[in-house]
Structures are given as C-alpha cells and as structure tokens.
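HUMAN: You are asked to prepare a plain-text protein record giving the amino acid sequence and the backbone structure tokens, both parts labelled.

ASSISTANT:
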Amino acid sequence: MVLISEDSRELLQAHVELWNQTYSFMKSVALAVALDLRIADAIHCRGGAATLSQILGEIGVRPCKLPGLHRIMRVLTMGESSATASLSPMLNHVLSPFRDSPLSMGLTAWFRHDEDEQAPGMCPFTLMYGTTLWEVCRRDDAINALFNNAMAADSNFLMQILLKEFSEVFHGIDSLVDVAGGVGGATMAIAAAFPCLKCTVLDLPHVVAKAPSSSIGNVQFVGGDMFESIPPANVVLLKWILHDWSNDECIKILKNCKQAIASRDAGGKIIIIDVVVGSDSSDTKLLETQQEWKKIFLEAGFKDYNIMPILGLRSIIELYP
C-alpha cells in the first residue's frame, strides 16, 4: 500500500471534486446523445436488457463505435429503475441547449458518421470543426497560449505532489525526455529536484518556440514530432498524453519511446501519468481497464508494467521494455 501525507491526499481529493464539477455537464450531453440515438428504445426492444453490441445493431451504428458507446453508457448507468412512463419529450426540451452547444462536440453526429471500419480514428472534435485541436493551436496564438498555460498549471500542481510523495520513480536515472512536454512545467520541476538529471522537453516547434527561458541548466527544449522520433534517454515521460490518441496512435508513440530508452537493466522505462478509469483498487472495473492498457503495451512491444492509482484521477504507470 502506498502511503501519502494527509495534506496531499486532501489536495488530490479536492482536485477530483473540481474535475467532477467542471465536467458535470457531460452527463447532460451523454443523456442528450442517448435520446437522439434512441438507446432506451433499443434496450426496451431487447426485453429490458441488451449488450452494447446488440444496442449498436438496434440503433444502426457501426461496430467501430463500440468504445464510444461504452463510454456513454458508463456515464449514464446508475442502476435499476422501475419507471415506466416516457420522459423523452420533457428531456428533449430540457436538454436541447446541451445538444446544440459546441460543448457537446457533435457526439450524436459522430456516432452517425459513416467512417472507415479499418480507420475509425476521427474524433468528435475533428468531425465537428474539420480540423484537429493541435492544428487550431498551431494557427491561433491565443488558443495555443491558453492550452499551454493550462497544461503548465496542471504540471505545477501535479508535480509538486509527485515529487513530494513519490520521487522514487525518478531515482537511479541520468536522463529523461518529457514527450509532448509543452512549455516545460513538469520537466523544470523534475530538473530542479534532481540537478544531476539531464532533461529534455520534446514538443512541436511552435510550442517549443513559446517556452519561457529557463534558468535551470539541466533542461533543454527540442522541436520535433513524437510520431517521427524521440531523443534517446534512460526514461521517457508521457504526462497526460496518451488519452488524446487512438489505440493505434498510442502504439506508434510507445514504439518510438521504446526505441529511445535504455534496457530495463540499465534503468530504462517509460513513466506514464494518465487516467485509468475505475482505478480505485476496490472497483471491479479495474481489471477490465488494466486489460485495455495491457493490450496497447503488449502490441507496442513492452514486457511489464506497474499501475499505481495514487494521483487522484490519474495513475502513475511504469512501463518496462
């Protein structure tokens, strides 16, 4: 069992509550999507119980959307209900602002989108706006600054706790690459705590160009693309990165990371900080979500991993070649 100070535990719990409040509107968005897709009718047609695959068949959505439906149902599933009257007309009225808002990111349209079964990689944002978030950041300096500042603030909060409570994950290494590390918030905190550690921040050239000048001598910024190559190091850090990409893209990123790091005997590993849904050790969903991560890790060529659900919403994952 990992021990953590009471102050850090309270901060992490407050962080969880803040995220829950910030994204509470997604429950309304998910309910609006369920109404538009007539998910309740599909379940009713199956006698009141249906698998996700059966629901997809009933609502006419392609099988490649199964992971998306899984997420929608995870948000909506609350338990059994004895209600028999239809609330759809009232809910349609109440939820119309969420259905039409850009915050919904056109989820219903994404489910209905007839994309290639072999390449189901287009996310709702891209379908709605015709471009990726990263391209928007590249073109718009204001949005780029907003995004980078948000990531830096998140790093400042998280790294303060990580370095106080779990600094041992960085022990015994002499070099680290922070992949897609933005303007270097996480890296500079690590470098300050470990002055002998050679640290590199890798990100796209337009991001690195906005990085503040650092007075910390063991940090350098490199413009590049994680899908092309990653500078060599003992350890690669992927903080809050992989959730943005499809499984195939995650595998490609991890394969490039594997080429960059040393062997396990020489201290080589990847440190991933990301969400493992249901990562409370008492949650029966833990095994399922660990299996989802495990599938990606094995396909990327890794042999071992360790998931530590110790950072509130996020977990530390140590991944070994």
